[in-house]
Amino acid sequence: MNYSRPIQMLVDEHAVINSVLDALEAAVARIGRPDALPPSFFEQAADFFAGFADRCHHAKEETHLFPRLEARGIPRDGGPVGCMLSEHEAGRAHIRALRAAAQRVRQGGQRRADEPASGSAGVR
Ligand SMILES: [Fe+2]
Fold this sequence. Notes:
The chain is mostly helical. The protein has one domain (5-106). Helices cover 69% and strands 0% of the residues. The protein is elongated, with a radius of gyration of 17 Å. The two termini are 30 Å apart. Bound molecules: fe (ii) ion (FE2).
């Protein structure tokens, strides 16, 4: 599909984000195994999601794309824009939970790294 340059940039950024999500998923599968990755991997993943996915990519969508969609009649409340904004908020909760889990592992806490932090239960 041919997109405008700005939209193609967002699509390309999705591919980068998805590749890091795949790496994170593979790392989570290794938790508790001899080949488990160190907490620094998860901290760096959290840094990537906070810095690139949220502050760069989501900011572009929220600042430039979503207002244009709304201007073209796509509703914010109850529509796809509101859904995406909700997903962005859920992503921020995931970043906080990921960072907290990595910190617990680094500090030798008793909770498992894949156990949700309090307050993030039910957020996917
Ligand atoms: Fe996006």
